[in-house]
Write a structure and sequence with these properties.
The chain is an alpha+beta fold and 124 residues long. Helices cover 23% and strands 36% of the residues.
Length: 124
């Protein structure tokens, strides 16, 4: 959903993300889409999750993910071609996502941090 939102207008991105993201983090993501539009960029490829850990405490949760970014980068918004310098040299990153359970019972993303350190994906 985030990749689709990144290829949309900021207004459309907000509509797409609102069922999955809430609070200040929704505003943060929409601002990111606005910056991409201004720069003539859009998401390219896909990131592959490798969930390592999930911690739940009441109405809050944290997901720790070793995300494979080897097939992702940024593309030119008009040509949809990869901008080579945006492809990461590091192919995996440690991602921590914070979620909260809303009054409707659904879990929504409220924050995310990307550690610059490489990680080892979970064994399958």
């Amino acid at each position: 959903m985030l990749a689709q939102a990144g290829k949309s207008s900021p207004e459309q991105a907000r509509k797409l993300l609102k069922p999955y993201v809430q609070g200040a983090y929704l505003d943060h993501l929409v601002d990111g889409v606005r910056r991409m539009v201004e720069q003539g960029r859009e998401p390219y490829g896909q990131m592959i999750p490798g969930v390592k850990e999930v911690r739940v405490g009441g109405k809050r949760a944290e997901v720790v993910d070793c995300q494979d970014m080897s097939q992702a980068g940024m593309a030119d918004r008009q040509t949809h071609l990869l901008i080579p310098e945006t492809a990461k040299g590091q192919t995996r990153a440690d991602i921590r996502a914070q979620l909260e359970q809303s009054s409707d019972g659904r879990w929504r993303l409220t924050g995310m941090s990307i550690k610059g350190t490489a990680c080892t994906p979970p064994s399958r």
